[in-house]
Amino acid sequence: MATMLSTYIDDKQSFFLYAGAGSGKTHELVELLKYIRSSLKMELYRNGQKVAVITYTNAATDEIKRRIGYDPLFDISTVHSFVWEMIRPYPEDIKKLLTIKLNEKIEDLEQKQAKMKDTQCKTYTDRQSQIEKYRERLNTVGNVSLFKYNPNGDNVDSDSLNHTEVIDIGATLFGKPLMQQIMVQRYPYIMIDESQDTKKDVMLAMLGMAKAHKGRLTLGLFGDVKQRIYMDGVPNIEKEIPDGWGLPVLEQNYRSASKIVALANLIAKEIQPEEKSQQSVQPEAPQGYKRLYVIQNDAQLDKDRTERKIAEDMATETEDADWKDAVKVKTLILEHRMAAVRMGFADFYETLYNVGRYSEDFLKGEAPDMRVFMDVLFPIMEAQAKGDKESVFETVKENCILLNKKEFLNVVQMKKVNQKLTVLLDTCNNKDCRIEDAVNSIIDSGLFSVSRMLMASVGKDTADNFTESQVKALDAWNTAKALPLEEFRHYFEYVTERSRFATHQGVKGLEFERVMVIYDDAGAKGHSFSYEKLFGAAALSSSDQKNISEGKETSKERTMRLLYVTCTRAIESLALVTYTQSPDAVYDFCIQKGWFEDGEIIKWPREEQ
Predict the structure, then answer these.
(1) If you average pLDDT over every residue of the chain, what do you get?
(2) Residue 156, pLDDT score
């Protein structure tokens, strides 16, 4: 049962495992957990202790739980959930810190307001509204006796904490000696996956705790600094590792074909010149394929059609007909709106994406007002289309409010439910069905619970006592309800990973046989990343130059890490598709870097077309 990491558990030594893409990081983590279970389970149970495992996503949490057999010895959760469970029993401490942070926010905004000359502009009025909202919260927080937080729900009441507040308060409390004593007594072993992207303040607090409790706490960090893609992580976590820690390295890539690993190594050297950034390839690994398609950007270009044609070209290049099957090719886009445009839910996306009430949950498909669609209606429609009667029954049974669980055994009552469900599905399967029609049909059926927000949007409830954020959300739904239900379904397919699309950031840790990566700065409309700058097709901005002079990272450096992440998702074949204003510059840059050979770069459309 021993693993390469076992010695750190035996010696009670903290460690940072440097694990490049495809090197088996999750496997090593799971094997280490199994080793702890086999050697320390009884001791931990006698002391009333457990092992904490902190992951980055809910999907990663579920995967590790599955691999470890859902053993209660391990508390496996995301960082937000872990922090909340630690601070939840201390409402008075939460109240004190929340009061301090609210006052700090108000003071900061008031200082900015004092510098404003135009008190009639939108920036001034929006900021003033924010100040009033913080003051209102400050006036009520003193009366709260118990706080609540639901990472998958709606946090709008005065006693609710949002994601940011949980992290900020938790990071502060984790630095307190008493809280550290409590944590170390409960969790003598804490493992943090994707540590390079774990919230900076929490990560630094954990490092400080490991240093203060050396020998009592074994802190294991798993990560790859080349794959840090979020700006709220620790910029150079390897430099924060205390003396005396173990620094093991996973050097072999078990995932990708040799040409893809070679490309990844060249990109890695740009990010980290150190030798440990380079990976070896399995002896039996195939050569594989990599291609770069360079396309002159044009606002009139049908990019979805272009990408389908390129997939056909890849089928020819690789002699792999599965490239023609969109379901068997994972297409990575930089921003969600790019998928929205290609999948046909752009209007739905633009209407609801910027609603503050959903800012945390919209892109995870967890916005509370959408639950009746995301958790009930669309899964039922999907199961019905597949002829999966069992899944339809189970979803109805789990969510139906018309009957209690025992009445589902009553044939007469079930017949009534089926009749109502048939009417509902007939309405929603109609190609002309709008979101408003679907909401009304759900309400009329009486089968499932519908939020007040949706009911108000179709005039079946009032907006009485709605907060300011709820009123804004209602305005958005009043616009969205006129859209085709099909747009909402496409959104459902995307956020539940049923589509061929995923974001560059969202696929970290995943792998696919065939990968197409879309680089399109103009289509993404973002500022954090710039492939045009990375590929030498655009000059660095004055902000980039300033950051370089101050030793700060630039958008080009962030984009280089994201390039590494996307390229290393591919197992067998990789197609990079870049839309650019300067195709020649991109071509020359990639040749000069040695990333691609001449025959691997294709200026599209091909000359012979």
Answers:
(1) 89
(2) 54
Provide mean pLDDT across the span 428-452: 95
Token match 């009552």: residue? 413
Angle, in degrees to the nearest 10, between helices 177-186 and 79-87: 110
- Cβ–Cβ under 8 Å, residues 31 and 8: no
| HSE-CB of 338 using CA atoms within 13 angstroms | 24
The one-letter amino acid code at 171 reads: A
Pull the structure tokens for residue 46: 């006698």
Q: What share of the chain is helix, strand, coil (3-state, %, to 5)?
A: 55, 10, 35
Is omega for the bond preceding 283 within 30 degrees of 0, making it cis?
no
Segment 190-206, tens digit of pLDDT: 999 989 888 899 999 99
* Tokens 């409402």 sit on residue: 91
% of the chain beyond a pLDDT of 70: 95
DSSP tag of 539: P
User: pLDDT tens for residues 408-421?
Assistant: 667 788 888 899 99
Confidence at 182, pLDDT banded by 50, 70, 90: very high
- Of 79, 8, 51, the closest CA to residue 187 belongs to 51
> What average pLDDT score do residues 315-328 get?
95
* Better-predicted residue by pLDDT, 238 or 93: 93
End-to-end alpha carbon distance in the chain: 58
Query: Which residues contact residue 172 at a Cβ distance below 8 angstroms, ignoring those fewer than 6 apart?
Result: 97, 201
Question: Which token pair is 199?
Answer: 């919230």
pLDDT at 360: 64
Q: What is the mean pLDDT of residues 33-37?
A: 96
Task: State the Cα angle at 37 between 32 and 39, rounded to 5°.
Answer: 95
Phi, psi of 191 (to 5 degrees): -110, 130
Per-residue confidence band for 153, with pLDDT thresholds at 50, 70 and 90: very low
If phi > 0 it is left, if psi is from -120 to 50 it is alpha, else beta; for residue 70 that is left
Kindly tell me the sign of the dihedral angle through the C-alpha atoms of 542, 548, 551, 556.
Answer: positive
Residue closest to 342 by CA, chosen among 513, 494, 476: 494
Q: What H or E segment, with its residue span, contains residue 560?
A: helix 555-567
412 Cβ contact list (under 8 Å, min separation 6): none
The answer to whether 303 and 346 have CB atoms below 8 angstroms apart is no
Distance, CA of 22 to CA of 252 (rounded, Å): 8
What are the tokens at 473?
């959300």
Phi, psi of 472, deg, nearest 5: -65, -40
Written in H, E and C, the secondary structure of 194-241 is CHHHCCHHHHHHHHHHHHHCECCEEEEEEECHHHCCCCCCCCCHHHHC
Which of 595, 603, 23, 604 shows the shortest CA–CA distance to 260? 595
Do you know the residue count of the chain? Answer: 609
What is the arithmetic mean of pLDDT over 1-11?
86
Which pLDDT score, from 0 to 100, does residue 607 have? 66
Gyration radius from the chain CA atoms = 26
In angstroms, the Cα distances linking 430 to 95, 215, 371, 439 are: 51, 65, 21, 14
- Measure Cα distances from 179 to 186, 220, 323, 509 in Å: 11, 19, 54, 32
- How confident is the model over 272-295, as a mean pLDDT? 89
pLDDT exceeds 60 at position 155: no
In 3-state terms, what secondary structure has residue 534?
helix
